[in-house]
Each structure stands twice: as structure tokens, then as C-alpha cells.
Amino acid sequence: MSVSAKNIDRGDIVGARQHRHGRWAIYLFLIIVCLVQLVPFWLAICQSTKPSSDMSSTLVPRLTNIQWSNFTQAVTEGGILRAILNSVIITLGATVLTCVIGAMAAYPLARRPTRGNKFVSSFILALMMIPPLSILVPLYTFLVRIGGVNSYWGPILVLATSNLPLAIFLYTAFIRSIPSSIDEAGMMDGAGPMRIFFTLILPLLKPVTATVVIMTGVGVWNEYALSSYLLTDQSMQTIAPRVASFFAAQSSNLGVGAAAALMAALPIIIAYMFLQRYFIAGMVAGAEK
Amino acid sequence: MKALQRTMAALLCCTSLVGLASCGSASDANSLEVMTGMATGSAQLKVMQQLARGFEKQHPGVRINLLSGTNSYEQDIRVRLAGRNPPDIWNTHGWSRDRYAAFLEPLQNRPWASRLNTLMNIPMRTKSGAFYALPLDVAVTGIVYNKDVLSKAGVDPRSITSWDDFDKACAAVTASGNSCIGASGKETWTGGNLLDFPAPGLFTTAQLTALQNGTFDDKPFRALSDMVQRWSKKKFFNVDYVSATNDDVARSVALNKTAFVFQSNGFAITAQQYNPKVRLGFIAFPASTGSRYLVSGEDYALGVAKDSPRKKLALEFLDYIAEAKNISRFTAVANNASAFKDVKSSLGVMQSSYDYWVTRRHTRIIPIFDRVYLPNGMWSTLTTTADGLISGQITAPQAVSQISTSFVSLYRKKA
Fold first, then answer.
1. Residue B100's domain spans which residues?
2. What is the ipTM, given to two decimal places?
3. How many structural domains are present in chain A?
4. Could you say which of A50, A81, A287, B230 is the most buried, measured as most Cβ atoms within 10 Å of its Cβ?
5. Domain range for residue A39?
6. Are A135 and A163 within one domain?
7. Which among B14, B2, B73, B18 is positioned nearest to B42, based on CA atoms?
8. Between B40, B71, B72, which is nearest A77 by CB?
9. Are B91 and B35 in contact (CB under 8 A)?
10. What is the pLDDT of residues A20-29, one digit of tens each?
């Protein structure tokens, strides 16, 4: 073997070793990130298994005499199962509306870059800058007048509206990347704008729709600030305000609150485990064209 | 493609149906909405639920919808009032007279009004004798202490007659390895009490009158700020102040690790959740301008919205709660003084302190300082200022300047 070949081999070995070390560093980093992510769940498990009079460390769960009454109380007194159902209905409603209206609004904005449409696009983008809570009182007053408080449709409309600007922005950007020759081909075959949209464009929007579904769905599922004002009736409340109701200024119920939070997180964890592939595909969809 | 279209159409239909289905859920003439401000599963809410069921039994067809509260209860009420959609009845959490009176039905002519304890006159009645909420209990508050922590430090709580004595007691507690004062940086109202409760003992009567007339005097506020800053510098506060919640403070007291808290007697209920055997008591506040005192304030109290379309029914519900056999059920879980003459106070672990200071020594009882002498909105300034002092972010002179600026601005607004 020549000297230069030996040097190359040694270089390969050193490179492979560095590569292996780098991989271990990445694994270590990922393990730490995973552990950090699991800390709240761990604390909730520890807390929910104990009666409030248990003075042992909050980091150690109970293995015997588990306080199952925390979970039963979360269901019977806290109505957490009903809250999960309410969250599912509101999340589903708001997400569907956001996707349908967002895609339909984005189509003409992307296809006809007139001065008016450019202004409308900028205006919709500007709406993203308004914090929803800054319009809380007029919004609440309006919803009271039209009977939208303590209903499903009130929060669905409000949450869909607050998610629409971002959805329209994403859909507009995506539709612009679809060649307009597809629309022209449809027109040649005699299809109108609605038919072109539903038959030709909509099926191509699957990747960006996945992104919008995830962003809107997760946002609405976890939403607390607006829901706590719009849904005050226990039978209509979603998960976040229901869990918050275990913690008041003058009294609180930590164990039952932790049990309720764990039960509320369960559906989304199960959904994620089964639909992981689609979630990840949806998350990266916005990056590809 | 058709499948996709069908799915979307089906989902849209479902959404519309759900919306329509809930259209008929508006409250009717026989349904009362009560905002309790009490946590789900709490002893207080459970009693309220029992009372509501009892009333429903007596009034077939009537439904009482009890809403639990969260930490943002005050904002919830504000939004509902601003939206002109107040609940029929709500817990006025200390503000029936000074904040919500304009929205509430006066109650001095109700049949139970003559049975009310005179203790509630100070915090709840106006000069003309009107009051706007049914008090479920009355808070009579001193400095809450843990007997075992003080005993370990060799401190007799009743020997604390001045703030200098309090400092010495704190030094002894700290030397024994425990925290002297428990407060929560996450729930800054616990710190706000440190500027609020001791204040009346540092002002002369003339200074208090001047304060009510809009004249701000630096000296007493400087003394108050110096005191809190000194406690902070001497490390008398719990070391986890910044990250601690009030539950953490209660847990620390329950574990016999903290000696004093500046909170109402209801604190004992939270501490006893963690340790039913914790031994607590309270002492009167030291005063440099008069005799020692206790602070009295409105606690749980229910007011009826004056514009409620179900006002008659709401007033009947309050009448039902005010019946001696019913109100005594709430008093038993409130851990405070009774609001009614014919209902015995039930302060649990605090009863002996109450008997000593109120029944035996007839300690003077005065209203909560900020509610009477400071313009509306100052409470927020007190909490942030106390937080700054405890965490060392501001000095005592800066604290006084902060309070002064806020006082002048809010007083002008009020005027």
C-alpha cells in the first residue's frame, strides 16, 4: 500500500470516528430533549396518583394505594369526558371551516395578482398582527347579542376566523407554485372557476392542507384565552378552561387537576401515535414545493 | 376526488348541525346562572352544590347553574360586565361595595338583613347602611403562623407586639433553618398583602383622612417599603419566592418549613389539604400609631345583578342560602368568622386564636387598607411594588415613587 493510500485510510478512520461521536452527541441531545418534554407528564402522573395530604416528593409517583379517586373525581365533578367531546367538536368544526374557507379565499388571490387582490392579501396578513384578546370585549358583546356564547358555533366561528389569515397566507403561497396551465387546461375543457378549483386545484392542496390542519387543530385544541370567556357553562367548556377550573384564587385541587390534564392529553397522544406519519409529513409539507 | 368532496361536504354539514343544535341552549326564565369563583371539587363549591339542589327541590322546574372559577375570575367578571351580560348572581370576592355596587341589587331590606353580624358592616356597608351582597362568611385576618415552626425557633407568637419583635422572631426562625415569611412570586397578591395589611398601623388618623382626600404622604409608605426591603435583604422570605405558587407556600407551611404568611384564615384550609394536623394560629398586627388590630374584609359573598331578568328568583335563592341551617353549612367550610349573629363561627384550627383576639381581647378590627384609603386600581400597584421589593428589583425609595405616581394618577381619574 502506498503512503498516500495509508494516509487516506487513516483519514477515513478518523472521519468515521468523528462521525460516530457526532451521532452519539446527537442521540444524547435528543434523549435530553425527550426527557425535558416528558417532565410535565411525569409530574402530572406523580401528582395525580397521590392524595393532597401525601407529603412525599413531587418527583416520586405512588406505586401502592394509588389515589384513583382523583381520576373518578375528574370525570364526575370535573366533567372532563364531556370537555374532551366539546374540544373534539370545536376543533373539528374550526379546522374544517379554516381549511375550506382558507383554500377558497386563497385561490383567486393567488391566481389574479391585481392591485386590489394584493391589497386584500396584505390586509389579511396585517390581521395576523392583531392579538385576539385586544378585541375581547367588543367580540364578547357581539357574541352575546347573537347568542354565540356557550354554544358550539360561537367559538368555532371565532377560532376559525382567528386562524384564517395564516391559512390563507399558506394556501396562497402554495397555489402560486401550481402551474396556471392546469387551470387553462380546465378552461379549455369548459370548466368554470368553481369546478376548476374543486376538481383540479383542491386535490393538489393536500400537503399544505395537512400543514393547516395541524397548525389550526393543535392551536384550537389547546386554546384557553378566548374559550374561557366564550364557554362558561361547564357542559359546554373545552379541555383547557375545564382543567383551569380546578385552580381558583382561594382554593385549588392539584391532584384532581393533574388527573384531568392527563386524561385530556390522552386522546391527542393516541391520535399522534397512530397518525404520526401524517403529522410529520404535514409538518414538513410547507417546506417542499 | 369525489370522495374528498363528499368528505368535506359531510364535515361542513356536521359543523352546521352542531351549530344549529346548540341554538336552543340559551338560558330560560327558570334557570339561574351563578358565578361562584370556587374551584371545581373544592369544599366550598360542594356545599354550594348541595344548597342549589335543595333550592331546586323546593322550586320544581328551577335550575341553578353553578359556574366554577379560575385564577382569572376577576377578569372573567369584568368582561361579562363590560359585555353587558352579567350572571344572575356572582361572588363579589371583596368588592361588592367598592367596585360592583353600581351593578348590584341593594339587599338591606331582605328579611335576613337584621340577622347579619356587625363585623360585616366595616367592609360591606355604605355610610347609608346599604349593602350589595349576601356575605357567606367574613374574613377576620391577622398574621397567620405555624405553631411548630415558632416553637422550634423558641418564639412565643403572643410576645410579638411590635415590628421589631417580628424581625427578631424572623431572625430566630431563619437561624433554626426554616423560612420566616411565605409568599408567592407567581401569585403576587400574596406579596401585595405585605404592603396592605401592615399599612394602617403606620398611618395616623390625620394621615389616613388626608390619604382619602388625595394627599399622598411619603413617610408611612417609606417605612412600609423599608420594612419589606429589610425582610428581603435579611432573607426572611422563602428561597423559592420567584417560582413558588400559593399552593407551594401552603405546602411549605403544612410541612412545618415556613413560619408566617400574610393571608386570610381561609389559608388554613389549603394548608390542611396537605397536612390535616398542621398547627396554625394568628396574631394581631403590630401598630406604631395605635393599638394592635385585625383586618376585616368581605370574603365569599353573593350579589344579585340588578338588571337580571330573573332577579326575583335570584333574590329568593339568596334568601334560601341565608337561612341559618343553610348558611351554617357554608360557614363550616369557609374557615372564617360567621356573617350572621345566629350562626356560630367555625374557624377550625384558627378558632382558639379567634377566641383569644376577638372574643377575649376585643382587638380592634379595621377594614382592608387599600379598599378604603386608596383609589380603585391601586391594588395592582401594591402587588407589583411588593414583588419588586421582595425580589430585589427595586429599592424602597423607588417603591415609594412607584406607589406615589400610581396614587396621583388614579386619584385624578377618580376625581
1. 29-139+298-348
2. 0.75
3. 2
4. A50
5. 1-67
6. yes
7. B73
8. B40
9. yes
10. 778 899 999 9
